[in-house]
């Protein structure tokens, strides 16, 4: 199932950054909600994020890369754990839109987020990670995930557009659990 979401960016620099990523580096991303053996969900933060902001982890899918291969590669790189797929919950086609202030014309870039629910089956969280991108982990229940989703939706300033983007992917994960 592919569902389309639209984000109207207010920050031209962030829009252009995402546009270049799509043109030069990736077709989209895998968004992976990992359930720990204790039943909690892994959320992550990075040093450059606004203070107190966490999200469901994700990682890029390179051109000519299989989505499932990208999923397992990204989980290992970012979290350092072994997982199994519980469910593939769909694809979000996200239309990044920006109105050029000089020309008043809209520019749109399509980005695809492939959403997965995973179960942790081994490894050592973060200590076995292949990169150091993640600076912190917070394990949450459904109520905690709701709070994280709302905090993403309410980011202001230069992180606002990024927050709206991450809100859409994290909200899709939250909605999955609410329907269960």
Short description:
The chain is 31% helix and 39% strand. It is α/β, with parallel strands linked by helices. It has a five-stranded mixed β-sheet with strand order 1-5-6-2-4, with helices on both faces.
Structural account:
The chain contains four helices and seven strands, in the order E-H-E-E-E-H-E-E-E-H-H. The protein has 180 residues and is an alpha/beta fold. The protein has one domain: Nucleoside Triphosphate Pyrophosphohydrolase (Alpha-Beta Complex), CATH 3.90.79. The strands form two sheets. Strands 1-5-6-2-4 form a five-stranded mixed sheet, with helices on both faces. A two-stranded antiparallel ribbon has the order 3-7. The longest helix has 19 residues, at 160-178. The two termini are 18 Å apart. The mean pLDDT is 94.
Q: How are the strands ordered across the major sheet?
A: 1-5-6-2-4
Number of domains: 1
Q: What's the name of the CATH homologous superfamily?
A: Nucleoside Triphosphate Pyrophosphohydrolase
Rg over CA atoms: 16 Å
Please report the total strand number as a whole number.
7
Q: State the order of secondary-structure elements, H for helix, E for strand.
A: EHEEEHEEEHH
Q: What would CATH call the architecture?
A: Alpha-Beta Complex
Kindly name the structural category: alpha/beta
Mean pLDDT level: 94
Helix content: 25-40%
């Amino acid at each position: 199932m592919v569902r389309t979401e639209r984000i109207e960016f207010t920050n031209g620099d962030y829009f252009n950054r995402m546009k270049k990523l799509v043109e030069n580096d990736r077709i989209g991303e895998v968004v992976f909600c990992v359930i720990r053996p204790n039943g909690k969900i892994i959320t992550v933060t990075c040093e450059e994020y606004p203070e107190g902001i966490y999200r469901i982890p994700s990682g890029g899918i390179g051109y000519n890369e299989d989505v499932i291969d990208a999923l397992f590669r990204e989980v290992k790189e970012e979290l350092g754990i072994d997982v199994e797929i519980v469910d593939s919950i769909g694809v979000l086609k996200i239309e990044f839109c920006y109105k050029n202030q000089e020309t008043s014309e809209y520019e749109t870039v399509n980005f695809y987020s492939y959403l997965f629910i995973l179960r942790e089956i081994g490894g050592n969280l973060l200590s076995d990670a292949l990169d150091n991108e993640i600076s912190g982990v917070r394990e949450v229940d459904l109520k905690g995930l709701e709070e994280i989703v709302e905090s993403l939706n309410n980011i202001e300033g230069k992180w606002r557009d990024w927050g709206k983007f991450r809100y859409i992917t994290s909200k899709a994960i939250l909605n999955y659990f609410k329907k269960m």
